[in-house]
Design a protein that fits this description.
With 106 residues, the chain is an alpha+beta fold. Helix content is 29%, strand content 25%. The protein is built from 2 helices and 5 strands; from the N terminus they run ββαββαβ. Strand 3 and strand 4 form a beta hairpin. The longest helix has 16 residues. The protein is elongated, with a radius of gyration of 17 Å. It starts with 10 loop residues before the first strand and ends in a 10-residue tail after the last strand.
């Protein structure tokens, strides 16, 4: 079905040791998010990863009072991406979204 529909899938080529390996961006995003969840100890649904042609955007939403360093998350993401051996280098952007310390009273 995909071969007859217009458009193209977002994907990256991995260095597969002499073989061409093509991986959908969603697979890369999911694997990276799972790895970061394990590294940070956060729930998987607290981490969102988007993979584009040239960038990887990571958004982390730790709970109130959970210390998390942006540089540590970026370092873990970049180290994991290196293990994927992408054919083209991507830039990693990390955003930490903190919840409001106090909820608005009604």
């Amino acid at each position: 079905m995909l071969a007859i529909t217009p458009g193209r899938l977002s994907k990256h080529v991995l260095d597969g040791g002499g073989r061409a390996v093509v991986v959908d961006n969603g697979v890369i995003a999911s694997a990276l998010a799972q790895h970061l969840a394990e590294e940070t100890g956060l729930a998987r649904d607290s981490i969102t990863v988007g993979v584009g042609h040239r960038t990887v955007d990571v958004t982390v939403r730790p709970g109130i009072g959970i210390p998390l360093d942006k540089a540590d998350v970026a370092s873990a993401a970049e180290a994991e991406l290196q293990t994927y051996r992408l054919a083209h280098r991507v830039r990693t952007r990390v955003r930490i979204e903190r919840p409001a310390e106090k909820e608005d009273e009604l």
